[in-house]
Amino acid sequence: MQKFTVSLLLTALVLIPGWLKAQDEASLIRESAEKIAQATLDLDFSQIVTFTYPGLVELMGGKDQMITLMESSLGGMKEQGFVIESVEIGQPSKRVKAGEEIHCLVPQKLAMTFSGGTIITESDMIGISQDQGKSWTFLGTSNMTTEQLLAILPEYNVDELGLPQSKEPQVIEKE
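Structure (tokenized):
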């Protein structure tokens, strides 16, 4: 019995640090995703760009160009009466190696009101770490084709993560 207890204790000592690291990493991913969610609610475009995958920022013409584009598109939505009411972040998926990066999927649920009611969208963001999990940026994928995704993230590991999911938007009409 004592031999079994010692064996169990040694196994726990080997496994617990890895489990704790995974928990810490998931917390860091979620915390970073919460920051981009809050920036979205606040329409803080500079902060949104800070937590956006640098490859996309570059593709959009750089930070200033991306901010101008967001101001234009979200400003136009605001003029039409659309207001982002909430952004909920779910638990990150497993983390997988993708070339020199680490990727995971992070579910998000966004609720936006407009004169006719509320639109709720659910989709996965891709969490991306370029520094072995120390920091995370994100790539929204709700309107992205597989070809576009792989053009931005050519090392994306479809076999292990699958493709990001995006549900059909739900419209709740005002009564």
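Confidence is low (pLDDT under 50) at residues 4-22. Strands lie at 83-89, 96-98, 101-114, 117-129, 137-140, 170-173.
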